[in-house]
């Protein structure tokens, strides 16, 4: 099963250049009109038998006008248009925070710029796409996907530059990494398990671990979290906290699930406890700021 590993040197706009690693893309135009848009596809499409595919894009330089889009497209799509502007194409744009699919745009997430890392996940189990920003989940952007899709990026910003991570190094979105499971052998199998398994029971069998142990609860809870089966994930994470009351793993994922479900007080309780255990936890510090904004907004209303 061939997966995307780099940008294609032969499948790109003339407005773009690619460095020797095949990962960094630079915009070479002036970016003064839509006719100077440049996009590029990855070297392989994502095969449907791959249940889930995730990649990240570091914004090295936003450029003059910050027009950068990240997403997926079919082979037929015009590479002189931004992701999402053509049929068979979808993308999240940094200059306006909108998601675009086949020409239609909708408000989606925050703007992104130099120094940000945007993650993009295609889930063939439920045919959805979600994005992350600097390790924080932003929610589902697209549903009911069709077609043979390639990762793609588009730029129309003088001096703009991005660099992709197709899995050759750790992702900022830690849910996709396996290193927080606290078992080296399971961690190494985690990404393959995500790519091969349809449900949590398949995952446990694939990883060859006993049901209802702490490791099984972690793996099942994390898998259901990624697959957006939040009620099932909450059951396992709560059971894990009954076994390990100070489990940073369970507090982190249960806190994020509560946040995504709009249960901000419950989320705040878990995040506060996590910060007492690990004062410098990067994820907890970021989500605490977002929680404070949400709770303050609700108190005003």
UniProtKB/TrEMBL annotation:
It comes from Gigaspora rosea. One of its GO terms (molecular function) is carbohydrate binding. Gene3D superfamilies: 2.60.120.920, Tetratricopeptide repeat domain. Pfam families: SPRY. Keywords: Lectin. The lineage of its organism: Eukaryota, Fungi, Fungi incertae sedis, Mucoromycota, Glomeromycotina. The keyword Electron transport does not apply. Residues 1-171 form the B30.2/SPRY domain. Signal peptide: none annotated. This is Concanavalin A-like lectin/glucanase domain-containing protein.
């Amino acid at each position: 099963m061939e997966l995307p590993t780099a940008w294609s040197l032969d499948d790109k706009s003339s407005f773009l250049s690619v460095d020797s690693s095949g990962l960094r893309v630079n915009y070479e135009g002036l970016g003064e009109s839509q006719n100077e848009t440049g996009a590029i596809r990855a070297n392989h499409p994502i095969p449907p038998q791959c249940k889930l595919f995730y990649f990240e894009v570091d914004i090295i330089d936003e450029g003059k006008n910050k027009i950068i889009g990240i997403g997926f497209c079919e082979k037929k799509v015009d590479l002189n248009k931004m992701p999402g502007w053509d049929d068979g194409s979808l993308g999240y744009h940094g200059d306006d925070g909108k998601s675009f699919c086949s020409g239609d745009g909708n408000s989606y997430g925050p703007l992104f710029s130099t120094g940000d890392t945007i993650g993009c996940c295609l889930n063939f189990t439920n045919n959805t796409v979600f994005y992350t920003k600097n390790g924080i989940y932003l929610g589902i952007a697209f549903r009911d996907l069709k077609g043979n899709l390639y990762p793609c990026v588009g730029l129309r910003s003088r001096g703009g530059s991005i660099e992709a991570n197709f899995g050759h190094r750790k992702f900022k979105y830690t849910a996709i990494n396996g290193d927080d499971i606290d078992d080296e052998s399971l961690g190494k199998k985690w990404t393959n398990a995500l790519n091969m398994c349809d449900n949590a029971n398949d995952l446990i069998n694939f990883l060859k671990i006993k049901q209802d142990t702490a490791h099984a609860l972690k793996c099942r809870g994390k898998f259901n979290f990624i697959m957006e089966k939040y009620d099932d994930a909450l059951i396992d994470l709560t059971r894990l906290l009954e076994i390990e009351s100070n489990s940073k793993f369970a507090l982190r994922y249960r806190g994020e699930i509560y946040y995504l479900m709009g249960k901000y007080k419950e989320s705040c309780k878990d995040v506060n406890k996590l910060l007492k255990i690990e004062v410098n936890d990067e994820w907890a510090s970021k989500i605490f700021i977002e929680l404070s904004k949400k709770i303050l907004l609700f108190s005003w209303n």
